[in-house]
Amino acid sequence: MSLEQDIQQKKFRNEHQKVVVNLLYTVGWMKDRTRSIFESEDITAQQFNILRILRGSHPQPLSTQAIRERMLEKMSDTSRIVDRLVVKGLVKKVVCKTDRRLVDVQITDKGKKLLERVDQREDEMDEVINGLNEKEAALLNSLLDKIRQGGE
Question: Which pLDDT belongs to residue 50?
Answer without folding.
Answer: 96
